[in-house]
Amino acid sequence: xxxxxxxxxxxxxxxxxxxxxxxxxxxxxxxxxxxxxxxxxxxxxxxxxxxxxxxxxxxxxxxxxxxxxxxxxxxxxxxxxxxxxxxxxxxxxxxxxxxxxxxxxxxxxxxxxxxxxxxxxxxxxxxxxxxxxxxxxxxxxxxxxxxxxxxxxxxxxxxxxxxxxxxxxxxxxxxxxxxxxxxxxxxxxxxxxxxxxxxxxxxxxxxxxxxxxxxxxxxxxxxxxxxxxxxxxxxxxxxxxxxxxxxxxxxxxxxxxxxxxxxxxxxxxxxxxxxxxxxxxxxxxxxxxxxxxxxxxxxxxxxxxxxxxxxxxxxxxxxxxxxxxxxxxxxxxxxxxxxxxxxxxxxxx
Length: 349
What we know:
The structure is a single chain. By secondary structure, this protein is an alpha/beta fold. Helices cover 56% and strands 9% of the residues. The protein has a six-stranded mixed beta sheet with strand order 2-3-1-4-5-6, with helices on both faces. Helix 1 packs antiparallel against helix 8 and helix 8 (200-224) packs antiparallel against helix 14 (308-345). The chain is globular.
């Protein structure tokens, strides 16, 4: 493969990393908390909550980086008959489905699930608002057992049923694990990057997914190390690092405005917060690159040496991006660990 084709291939892979979407569709009875689940999965206030009437006239789309979530309207209704439903909403393009309910399963939802099952699409059942389960004289474990038996009697024992509460956070981590298990390898990595972490295990998976992304960005820098235009390779490296830093910070849900708040973090983490604020801009990245000035000079000088010089230049570009990217990842991960620890102590995770 020629150098030009190799460069095109590497940069295309970096672009593809940002374009691949994890497509999740939710369906179920109105008022069951689908919007709350969307917000809980992403950790972002994407969907308006508190709607208790079935006003959905079309599919409602929400997006958070690589996560693409859709609230589907009722299946088999007068407005959306079975015959055209799958085509109209491109149902088979979704990776996984969530049936959300807080009472009895509706016949139309069961029919939709059975059609999904027939077509080989994974679906997770979520009995939401478990914090509100109550029946005089019956314990919560007994209520859950009754619901499980009712659901398995309706749709079979092979369906996944989870109990969640978006109010208390109960079961959300388990739901995320169930969704991840339904995804392919590529989509699973995207899911770990941009879904909210409720456990330290999920946070570690998020870190691993970021490390894989850094390696791809470093590959782009390696190819860029062979750039024959003086000065342009440094500019491109800076652009790659800016994009990488912004992406990593978004992966952890870290906002600049929060980092700048006086009481957001303990004093010991203040230097880390300042670095994160400083380095996610081109000027900040140029400061980072000064740390690797020796390698930058080497890369610029040796690239003109036939063959061996190009290999050295490429390896220098790769090493710089790997080192800078992993340093930034380490800082973000440390901040995220603190935030998760505080959420768990406060009962929000």
